[in-house]
Specification:
The chain has about 210 residues and is α/β, with parallel strands linked by helices. It has 10 helices and 5 strands, in the order βαβαβαβαβαααααα. The termini are far apart.
């Protein structure tokens, strides 16, 4: 039996969740609070596996409060149950350690299945959010690599990506061919690849060129 707590401002939500889970075979609602300041006390008093938390809960002023809560209660899983836009709020929620985000417009059986999966250790977010997170990660990686590469290395990389040979790059940049070879070796090392094809592909994937 998964024990859940509900932290939400609205009595109608309290009533709906309580009614739905009253006779549920796998989930038991063991506590309800309507203010974030009461969440910690509820988690201390009750044995709660999954906390349903509304982002608009009274007293919840920043996502960092959720991060701190999870640090103090590491065994508790949090499912955000909210009307707010998942794509906007989920990336920071994921970083804070939240396990899932369920819109209040979803059917309650979706919420129930999410609670059960999250209790087993699953992290569940929509495909749009996953794509958004992957994009953020790629951009961050790209920015880190940009900082690693000198402006001259980026210049050489762009010529190589356009199919120029070492000799052609040397002529274009007014450098000798040996210097271009040295730049190429540095680029291979910095981008952690072993050949020119992979070097060019990685630069394109990370949108460096």
């Amino acid at each position: 039996m998964v024990k859940i707590g509900l932290a939400d401002n609205h009595p109608v939500v309290h009533f709906g969740i309580k009614s739905y889970f009253k006779e549920h075979a796998d989930i038991s609602l063991v506590g309800i609070v309507d203010n974030f300041n009461m969440v910690e006390e509820m988690l201390k008093r009750k044995e709660i596996d999954v906390l349903l938390l509304d982002l608009e809960l009274e007293g919840l002023s920043t996502i960092n409060l959720i991060k701190a809560l999870l640090k103090d209660f590491p065994k508790v899983k949090i499912v955000l149950f909210s009307n707010l836009n998942e794509q906007i709020y989920a990336p920071n929620a994921i970083k804070a350690g939240v396990s899932s985000f369920v819109q209040k417009s979803e059917k309650l059986d979706v919420l129930a299945s999410t609670i059960i999966k999250v209790n087993r250790g699953a992290i569940i977010f929509s495909e749009a959010v996953k794509k958004n997170m992957a994009l953020i990660s790629k951009q961050a990686k790209s920015e880190r690599l940009y900082r690693k590469l000198s402006s001259r290395e980026i210049e050489v990389l762009r010529y190589l990506s356009n199919g120029k040979k070492n000799k052609e790059v040397a002529e274009a940049l007014n450098l000798n061919e040996k210097t271009i070879s040295t730049y190429k070796l540095r680029l291979l090392a910095k981008l952690n690849v072993t050949n020119l094809v992979d070097l060019v592909n990685k630069a394109k994937t990370l949108e460096i060129v």
